[in-house]
Amino acid sequence: MELGIKGKQALVCASSKGLGRGCAEALAAAGVNLTLNARGAEALEATAADLRSRFGVDVVTVAADVTTQEGRKACLDAAGDIDILVTNAGGPPPGLWSDWNRDDFIGALDANMLAPIALMQAALPGMIDRGWGRVVNITSGSVKAPIPQLGLSNTARAGLTGFVAGTARQVAEHGVTINNLLPGIHATDRAVSLDTAVSNAQGIDIDQATKQRQATIPARRYGTAQEFGATCAFMCSQHAGFMVGQNIVLDGGAINATL
Question: Residue 136: CA atoms inside 13 Å, Cβ hemisphere, count?
Fold first, then answer.
């Protein structure tokens, strides 16, 4: 399918690997010029070189922590006029409700709620002026079905979801859409980390831990960064102009819900 976004300019956060890279690859394949961000410069430059060589698009890199004000400014300055914004950041650590203090919550809110809100507030005026824009926030399936031990993430991402719900409906008339993409378990470094923890805790090998987790997913497998990226790219396309303020779950059916 021709997505109709060739030549657009995108800022994709946390995009040197994993789901962020999957989104960057899919946008590059559609002819979108990219500003890529990640904290690690080496992996970021390797990803940029790969996308330039394979897709022939312009790729600018910014090695910075997008959860900080300085990091966001560096990304925004490098990206210029942003047509497409994909926000993304790793989640806070797990724990029990009794483990966290105010500083823990402020840290989670800064990274997973306030940072993407700040990026949207910076990018939306230009999108509105130009009469076109796409924002996709990579959040988590825990927004739809909260995970008890991820209370910090549940809290911050739910707040972001509330902000998007109202804001998306204020900017839609200007040709600008904002939506959220909610991943379940995908075959990324995060899945390896989770399965390794299960392996260590239960005294089983990592293949057993992986199969055990996959058995809880109706699709009986983990998602891929490529199919996640393809979904993101569609949400950024000319065909998604009537998709406003939605939370799209991509989890292989793991969340058992009708709505």
Answer: 30
Q: How far apart are CA 137 and CA 223, in angstroms?
A: 18
Pick from 4, 12, 26: nearest CA to 227 = 26
The string of DSSP codes covering 117-152 is HHHHHHHHHHHHHHT-EEEEEE--GGGTS--GGGHH
Strand partners, 179: 136
Q: Are 147 and 105 in contact (CB under 8 A)?
A: no
Q: How far apart are CA 83 and CA 32, in angstroms?
A: 10
The closest of 59, 86, 50 to 229, measured between CA atoms, is: 86
pLDDT tens across 9-56, in order? 999 999 999 999 999 999 999 999 999 999 999 999 999 999 999 999
pTM: 0.96
Q: Return the ∠ at Cα 167 (arms to 166 and 170), rounded to 5°.
A: 100
CA distance 218 to 28: 31
For residue 254, what are the contacts with CB-CB under 8 A and spacing of at least 6?
A: 141, 184, 185, 216, 217, 218
In terms of Cβ atoms closer than 10 Å to its own Cβ (0-12, 13-18, 19+), residue 242 is exposed
Q: Which residue has the tokens 């940029």?
A: 48
- Give the distance, in angstroms, between the CA of residue 181 and the centroid of all CA atoms in the same chain: 7
Q: Would you say 35 and 114 are in contact if contact means Cβ atoms under 8 Å apart? A: no
Q: What is the pLDDT of residue 98?
A: 93
For residue 127, the tally of other CB atoms under 10 A from its CB is 24
- Per residue in 153-185, pLDDT tens? 999 999 999 999 999 999 999 999 999 999 999
Of the candidates 18, 156, 36, the residue with the CA atom closest to the CA atom of residue 84: 36
Amino acid, single-letter form, for residue 15:
S
